């Protein structure tokens, strides 16, 4: 919860990856809040009040996962909305033409990797979701200490740069607004 709050302010992409990880943590404990509290939350060096706040936060997420039918897989609506916001900003940045040349250049540098991943996968995802899935999948591989091929590592590095730029623009847009359209 505390990490999520900080990430939401500073990097929307890292926030979303973190929230996907939280969904997986909840699933690992079979959406059982008592287990989450005693086996997970209680490990943290937080005050009892902070642990209670975390338990409330996880409890709300468990309720949402149960209500939305996401106990086994999928992402919560709140996380899908964040992804949609990122996707909309991505489209606006590309449509703004020459006003965001570095973003556009990075997009075209990453596009072949996105196309390759889409061709490998059975499901049609948008460009931003494809990048986020690749970043999350690679993060899981690294957590499991599995080897990531040099080609994959290169693609992930490019996607990380691209998604990082999008996150920076997202933050800037929320804080001060971006001039995305001609006025």
Rg from Cα = 18 Å
Which structural category do the helix and sheet elements fall into?
Answer: mainly alpha
User: How far from one another are the termini?
Assistant: 40 Å
Instruction: Provide the residue-averaged pLDDT.
Output: 94
What is the string of helix and strand elements?
A: HHHHHHHH
Main beta-sheet strand count, sense and barrel state: none
Number of E-state strands: 0
Q: What is the helix tally? A: 8
Which bin fits the share of residues in helices? over 70%
| Low-pLDDT segments | none
Shape: globular
Report the sheet-strand fraction.
under 5%
Walk me through what this model shows:
It is a single chain. With 183 residues, this protein is mainly α. The protein is 74% helix and 0% strand. The chain has eight helices and no strands. Helix 6 (101-120) crosses helix 7 and helix 6 (101-120) crosses helix 8 (150-175). It is globular. The protein starts with a helix and ends in an 8-residue tail after the last helix. The mean pLDDT is 94.
């Amino acid at each position: 919860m505390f990490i999520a709050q900080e990430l939401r302010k500073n990097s929307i992409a890292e926030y979303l990856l973190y929230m996907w990880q939280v969904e997986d943590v909840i699933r690992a404990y079979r959406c059982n809040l008592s287990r989450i509290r005693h086996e997970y939350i209680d490990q943290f060096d937080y005050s009892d009040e902070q642990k209670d706040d975390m338990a409330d936060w996880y409890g709300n997420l468990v309720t949402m996962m149960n209500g939305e039918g996401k106990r086994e897989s999928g992402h919560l609506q709140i996380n899908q909305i964040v992804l949609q916001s990122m996707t909309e900003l991505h489209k606006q940045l590309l449509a703004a033409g020459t006003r965001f040349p570095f973003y556009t250049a990075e997009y075209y540098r990453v596009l072949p990797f996105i196309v390759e991943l889409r061709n490998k996968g059975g499901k049609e995802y948008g460009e931003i979701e494809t990048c986020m899935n690749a970043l999350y999948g690679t993060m899981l591989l690294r957590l499991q200490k599995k080897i990531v091929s040099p080609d994959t590592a290169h693609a992930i590095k490019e996607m990380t740069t691209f998604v990082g730029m999008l996150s920076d623009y997202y933050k800037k847009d929320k804080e001060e607004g971006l001039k995305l359209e001609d006025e």
